[in-house]
Amino acid sequence: MTDPFVQTIVPVTHDLGAFEVRRALPSRQRTMVGPFIFVDQFGPAQLPAGQAMDVRPHPHINLATVTWLFAGQFGGAIDHRDSLGSFATIRPGQVNLMTAGSGIVHSERSPASERVATNGGGPSLYGMQTWLA
Questions:
Q1: Measuring CA to CA, how many Å separate 44 from each of 23, 53, 56, 75?
Q2: Considering only CA atoms, which of 125, 128, 93, 127 is closest in space to residue 111?
Q3: What CATH number labels 44-132?
Q4: Which of 35, 60, 88, 92 has the CA that lies 20 to 30 A from 100?
Q5: Are residues 18 and 49 in contact, defined by beta-carbon separation less than 8 angstroms?
Protein backbone atom coordinates (compact mmCIF):
# COMPACT_ATOMS: atom_id res chain seq x y z
CA MET A 1 0.00 0.00 0.00
CA THR A 2 1.30 3.46 -0.84
CA ASP A 3 1.33 6.41 1.52
CA PRO A 4 -1.71 8.64 0.77
CA PHE A 5 0.15 11.75 1.96
CA VAL A 6 2.28 13.49 -0.63
CA GLN A 7 3.66 16.25 1.55
CA THR A 8 3.19 17.73 5.02
CA ILE A 9 3.23 21.52 5.21
CA VAL A 10 3.59 23.32 8.53
CA PRO A 11 1.69 26.62 8.33
CA VAL A 12 3.33 29.95 9.10
CA THR A 13 1.56 32.07 11.73
CA HIS A 14 0.84 35.73 10.94
CA ASP A 15 -0.20 38.12 13.73
CA LEU A 16 -3.04 40.37 12.57
CA GLY A 17 -3.34 42.21 15.87
CA ALA A 18 -6.57 40.93 17.41
CA PHE A 19 -6.09 37.39 16.05
CA GLU A 20 -3.65 35.11 14.25
CA VAL A 21 -3.84 33.48 10.82
CA ARG A 22 -2.05 30.24 10.00
CA ARG A 23 -1.08 30.17 6.31
CA ALA A 24 -0.29 26.76 4.78
CA LEU A 25 -0.01 28.04 1.21
CA PRO A 26 2.11 29.46 -0.20
CA SER A 27 5.07 27.94 1.58
CA ARG A 28 8.69 27.17 0.84
CA GLN A 29 7.73 23.56 0.24
CA ARG A 30 4.82 24.32 -2.09
CA THR A 31 3.59 27.49 -3.76
CA MET A 32 0.17 26.17 -4.76
CA VAL A 33 -2.00 23.05 -5.02
CA GLY A 34 -4.05 23.04 -8.20
CA PRO A 35 -5.85 26.40 -8.30
CA PHE A 36 -5.32 27.06 -4.56
CA ILE A 37 -2.70 29.78 -4.06
CA PHE A 38 -3.49 30.72 -0.43
CA VAL A 39 -4.90 28.50 2.32
CA ASP A 40 -5.45 30.33 5.62
CA GLN A 41 -7.01 29.24 8.91
CA PHE A 42 -8.01 31.71 11.63
CA GLY A 43 -9.05 30.92 15.18
CA PRO A 44 -10.43 29.38 17.20
CA ALA A 45 -10.27 32.64 19.12
CA GLN A 46 -12.34 34.66 21.54
CA LEU A 47 -11.21 38.24 20.97
CA PRO A 48 -10.85 40.58 23.95
CA ALA A 49 -13.72 42.95 24.66
CA GLY A 50 -13.38 46.05 22.49
CA GLN A 51 -11.41 44.26 19.76
CA ALA A 52 -12.74 42.73 16.56
CA MET A 53 -11.81 41.35 13.18
CA ASP A 54 -11.26 44.50 11.17
CA VAL A 55 -9.70 43.79 7.77
CA ARG A 56 -10.00 47.19 6.10
CA PRO A 57 -10.86 47.64 2.39
CA HIS A 58 -8.18 46.19 0.13
CA PRO A 59 -8.05 45.21 -3.57
CA HIS A 60 -7.96 41.87 -5.36
CA ILE A 61 -7.65 41.12 -9.08
CA ASN A 62 -7.96 37.92 -11.16
CA LEU A 63 -8.73 35.55 -8.29
CA ALA A 64 -11.56 34.23 -6.14
CA THR A 65 -11.74 33.87 -2.37
CA VAL A 66 -13.76 31.26 -0.52
CA THR A 67 -14.45 31.97 3.17
CA TRP A 68 -15.96 29.29 5.40
CA LEU A 69 -16.75 29.67 9.11
CA PHE A 70 -16.68 26.57 11.30
CA ALA A 71 -19.52 25.80 13.70
CA GLY A 72 -18.95 25.44 17.42
CA GLN A 73 -18.08 27.53 20.44
CA PHE A 74 -15.90 29.96 18.44
CA GLY A 75 -18.00 30.16 15.26
CA GLY A 76 -18.52 33.92 15.19
CA ALA A 77 -19.60 35.86 12.09
CA ILE A 78 -18.00 38.11 9.47
CA ASP A 79 -19.54 41.05 7.59
CA HIS A 80 -18.22 40.95 4.02
CA ARG A 81 -18.68 44.09 1.90
CA ASP A 82 -17.30 44.87 -1.57
CA SER A 83 -17.04 47.67 -4.12
CA LEU A 84 -19.80 46.12 -6.27
CA GLY A 85 -22.26 46.89 -3.48
CA SER A 86 -22.52 43.29 -2.27
CA PHE A 87 -22.94 42.72 1.46
CA ALA A 88 -23.25 39.45 3.35
CA THR A 89 -22.93 38.35 6.95
CA ILE A 90 -21.15 35.00 6.89
CA ARG A 91 -22.16 32.68 9.74
CA PRO A 92 -20.88 29.26 10.86
CA GLY A 93 -21.52 26.57 8.27
CA GLN A 94 -21.91 29.13 5.49
CA VAL A 95 -19.59 29.80 2.58
CA ASN A 96 -18.88 33.12 0.89
CA LEU A 97 -17.45 33.18 -2.65
CA MET A 98 -16.02 36.43 -3.97
CA THR A 99 -14.85 36.57 -7.58
CA ALA A 100 -12.51 39.51 -8.19
CA GLY A 101 -12.42 39.40 -11.99
CA SER A 102 -10.74 42.54 -13.35
CA GLY A 103 -10.72 44.10 -9.88
CA ILE A 104 -12.65 44.47 -6.64
CA VAL A 105 -12.12 46.07 -3.23
CA HIS A 106 -13.56 44.38 -0.14
CA SER A 107 -13.50 44.40 3.65
CA GLU A 108 -14.12 41.78 6.32
CA ARG A 109 -15.20 42.84 9.80
CA SER A 110 -16.86 41.47 12.90
CA PRO A 111 -20.55 42.48 12.86
CA ALA A 112 -21.44 45.42 15.11
CA SER A 113 -23.78 43.14 17.10
CA GLU A 114 -20.82 40.88 17.98
CA ARG A 115 -18.47 43.71 18.98
CA VAL A 116 -20.47 44.22 22.18
CA ALA A 117 -18.79 42.40 25.07
CA THR A 118 -20.45 39.15 26.10
CA ASN A 119 -19.20 36.83 28.84
CA GLY A 120 -16.21 39.11 29.36
CA GLY A 121 -15.04 38.92 25.76
CA GLY A 122 -15.61 40.29 22.30
CA PRO A 123 -16.33 38.51 19.01
CA SER A 124 -15.26 34.95 18.34
CA LEU A 125 -13.62 33.69 15.14
CA TYR A 126 -13.00 30.26 13.66
CA GLY A 127 -12.77 29.52 9.97
CA MET A 128 -10.68 29.34 6.86
CA GLN A 129 -10.18 31.25 3.64
CA THR A 130 -8.72 29.98 0.39
CA TRP A 131 -7.69 31.96 -2.67
CA LEU A 132 -8.05 30.44 -6.11
CA ALA A 133 -6.33 31.63 -9.28
A1: 14, 13, 21, 8
A2: 125
A3: 2.60.120.10
A4: 92
A5: no
DSSP 131: E
Domain chopping of the chain, boundaries = 44-132
Q: Is 112 helix (H, G, I), strand (E, B) or coil?
A: helix
Q: What is the pLDDT along the chain (133 residues), one digit of tens a residue?
A: 577 777 888 999 998 877 899 999 999 888 888 898 999 999 998 888 888 899 999 999 999 999 999 987 887 899 999 999 999 999 999 999 999 999 999 999 999 888 776 666 788 899 999 999 9
22 close to 114: Cβ distance less than 8 angstroms: no
If one counts every other C-beta atom within 10 angstroms of the C-beta of residue 52, the result is: 19
Question: Which residues does residue 109 pair with via DSSP β-bridges, in sequence order?
Answer: 54, 79
